[in-house]
Write a structure and sequence with these properties.
Oligomer: single chain
Structural class: mainly alpha
Order of helices and strands: HHHHHHH
Radius of gyration: 26 Å
Number of strands: 0
Helix content: 55-70%
Amino acid sequence: MQRQHITLSEPDRDYLQAQLSKGALKVRKHKRMQALLYLDEGKTYQQVAKLLSVQYITVSAWAKSYTELGLLFLEDKARSGRPIKFEGTDRAKVTALACSEAPDGHSSWSLRLLADRLVELQLVEEISYSTVNLILKK
């Protein structure tokens, strides 16, 4: 018999089977769950990788993560990205200014005029007119 790479506990196995039977999962999570069940059945990393159309090293990493974290590894980790520059209060200031009376000599606010006024009033440190547009779109 081939070497079994992981052994699932009974509650873990039941949980995985129940989740897979529901059918409404993200593909990444579904593949991870299926890989655990295949490994528990005694399939090798190579066989599981071929069945799930992933790399051998991926299956190995999943098995290692399961042994370290248990079922918590199924959830995607937070992805890095640029932090939000304008919080809710800054967005509210932009909206409030846009809803106010337009300055003298103008019939309505333009995006560039709003951006300039926000910086002038020191409501925000800096902002582009395209960012003002995105904020007002929402």
